[in-house]
Write a structure and sequence with these properties.
The protein has 586 residues and is α/β, with parallel strands linked by helices. The protein contains 18 helices and 25 strands.
């Protein structure tokens, strides 16, 4: 694990990148006339003005500056304006509820809150009477932001160099089981983590890579791993300000690399499968033959003449067109934040898109393990330089093969802010971070994620069930949009299913089923039963779903069933649907 990071804090990383890559494009912003690019040098000038403006407002080392905004240039400018003043940045999501904003602003003690627009400014202003430390609300879209930069131009502030152990960010976790916890990440955590990623990532130093940054920067994977590692490498990021525009932006930006999460790949898997299902039978046969041939190639099995022909035809007629939707220059992608289903990983790989999986937590600065050129499908890779991973075989739900993942190294957080109890509980006596995830390490050092400790439950037969991987597998059905398993202390599992209503409605039209009775029609239940069985072929017998209920309303952040990072709030789901699930056992 001995590793010396070339940068020990973010300001050092930032200034070195500006000096090395000054004229290169850094951030791209979509304008009416196309994409406008800000160079490393121009970004540095904006950072200098933001830093001076914040200092003029009374922000000094250690003070907290919060931000509620989707991805935009101003977010990044102010982040480095804060870092270069040795202050602390506190990002939040636009999609969060007012009570979450209020809790985070109060817990962090933020003196300034930067916001994306007037609507959010008004909501924060309504909270301000209960936030005595919050002095200023600055709207990126009105004069308060331009005035901040003007203040900085008139009153420039010298760059402050923080110590490696100074706190760079408080990133508040999603709060699936209670109030969010403020993860204190130091400059050394984030800088060394970015450098460790670059040791593994197959980025090409001979060219300037380009990403389309659509993951929310309020999350550690997008806002820390993607920004900091690409900046350290001299690359560029086109800013996707609205994920609904992602498919429009991809051919315009033509990224060479993407940072994404499993739900994006699951969506591609689902979309391609649905498109192929609607094509003529010969095209369907060609596609499936070619996919099988790709899998055989990966396992070094010789292909027959017909398979080679099918592969060439599918590449021309199908695979190349799928890749073209990504802009035509995409060489590979990073997938993190959750484990990617092996079925989906193999599917995307067969299409000709190399996906390098990684694993990390907010508490470990976003990246603990990463796949390199020696990647293995189904694995999240090996620990990055400066990190060590152990498996605790004594954790709840552990078996002879897996246990709780314990993380050591430079990326591990300092503490939870204002929360000594949870901080103490999150570390082993040896100083390892308890991840809360179950995993196993193979003989070659590759890590595999097998579940979540906190989500584990035990059936009445004594067998443990990790629901999340099973739910992900069931959601690969084109007819199942969301799924929640239930079975603690019960003889078997049951499930709550949110169907993909668009796919289900199209199917119903072919069956002559009235849409008003779609979810109660026996034929619908029979279809979902077949889909569950089809996706359950590889699971253990005791994990099988014996019964289920269908509900039409999807889980969203608006109905408080999902966190802003799309994690399921199981407690809220059970509060609303627990009685209906219990009734399945009667």
């Amino acid at each position: 694990m001995t590793y010396t990071s070339p940068y020990t804090q973010l300001v050092q990383l930032f200034t070195a990148s500006v000096q090395r890559f000054g004229s290169r494009q850094l951030f791209g912003t979509r304008k009416t006339a196309g994409w406008h690019w800000t160079s490393y040098s121009e970004f540095s000038e904006l950072v200098q003005r933001a830093r001076g403006g914040l200092v003029d407002l009374g922000i000094g080392p250690g003070d907290r500056v919060a931000v509620i905004s989707n991805n935009r240039l101003e977010w990044a400018v102010c982040a480095y304006g804060v870092f270069t003043n040795a202050a602390t940045y506190v990002p939040m999501y636009e999609a969060q509820l007012d009570r979450d904003w209020q809790y985070i602003l109060r817990d962090s003690g933020a003196k300034v809150c930067l916001v994306a627009n007037a609507a959010i400014a008004g909501r924060v202003r309504a909270l301000q009477p209960d936030l005595p430390e919050l002095r200023h609300i600055i709207d990126f879209q009105d004069t308060s932001y331009t005035q901040l930069l003007e203040r900085g131009a008139k009153h420039p502030a010298p760059l402050r160099t923080p110590s490696p152990n100074d706190c760079a960010m408080y990133i508040y976790t999603s709060g699936t089981t209670g109030n969010p916890k403020g993860v204190e990440l130091t400059h050394h955590n984030l800088a060394s983590n970015a450098c460790g990623v670059l040791e593994v990532a197959p980025l090409d130093s001979r060219l300037q890579e380009r990403s389309l940054a659509f993951l929310p920067w309020a999350h550690v994977f997008g806002g820390c791993v993607e920004i900091n590692s690409l900046m350290a490498h001299g690359d560029s990021l086109a800013i996707c300000d609205n994920t609904d525009k992602l498919l429009d932006y991809l051919p315009e930006v033509q990224p060479t690399v993407l940072f994404a999460v499993p739900r994006i790949w699951n969506r591609i898997y689902d979309g391609v499968q649905k498109q192929i299902a609607g094509r003529p039978k010969p095209i369907q046969h060609l596609f499936h033959t070619a996919m099988a041939a790709k899998s055989k190639q990966r396992n070094n099995v010789a292909l027959g003449f017909g398979e080679r022909i099918a592969l060439r035809l599918a590449e021309k007629l199908i695979f190349s067109k799928v890749r073209a939707r990504f802009g035509g220059r995409l060489r590979f992608a990073f997938s993190g934040a959750a484990a990617l289903s092996r079925d989906v990983a193999e599917f995307i790989d067969n299409l000709g898109i190399l996906v390098y999986e990684g694993y990390g937590l907010t508490e470990s600065s976003g990246c603990t393990t990463a796949s390199g050129p020696d990647r293995r499908l189904g694995s999240v890779g090996k620990p990055i330089p400066g990190v060590r991973v152990e498996i605790d075989k004594h954790a709840p739900g552990a078996s002879a093969n897996d246990g709780e993942i314990i993380i050591f190294g430079s990326g591990v957080m300092a503490r939870y802010h204002n929360n000594p109890g949870d901080t103490l509980a999150s570390f082993t006596p040896e100083g390892g971070l308890r991840s809360g995830d179950l995993g196993r390490i193979d003989a070659d050092g590759f890590l595999y994620i097998t579940g979540r400790v906190k989500e584990l439950y035990k059936l009445s037969n004594g067998k443990y069930v990790a629901p999340a991987p099973l739910e992900e597998q069931l959601q690969l059905s084109p007819y199942i949009a969301q799924c929640v398993l239930y079975g603690a202390d019960k003889p078997h599992n049951v499930a709550l299913i949110v169907p993909d209503m668009q796919a289900l409605s199209s199917w119903a039209d072919g069956q002559g089923i009235d849409h008003s009775t779609l979810l109660t029609d026996p034929r619908t239940k029979e279809l979902i039963r077949r889909e569950i069985d089809a996706q359950s072929r590889e699971i253990k017998g005791y994990e099988a779903v014996r019964d289920f209920i269908l509900v039409p309303e999807p889980f969203t952040t608006q109905n408080d069933m999902l966190t802003p990072t799309m994690k399921l709030k199981r407690r809220n789901v059970m509060k609303q649907f627990g009685d209906k699930l219990e009734a399945l056992y009667r």
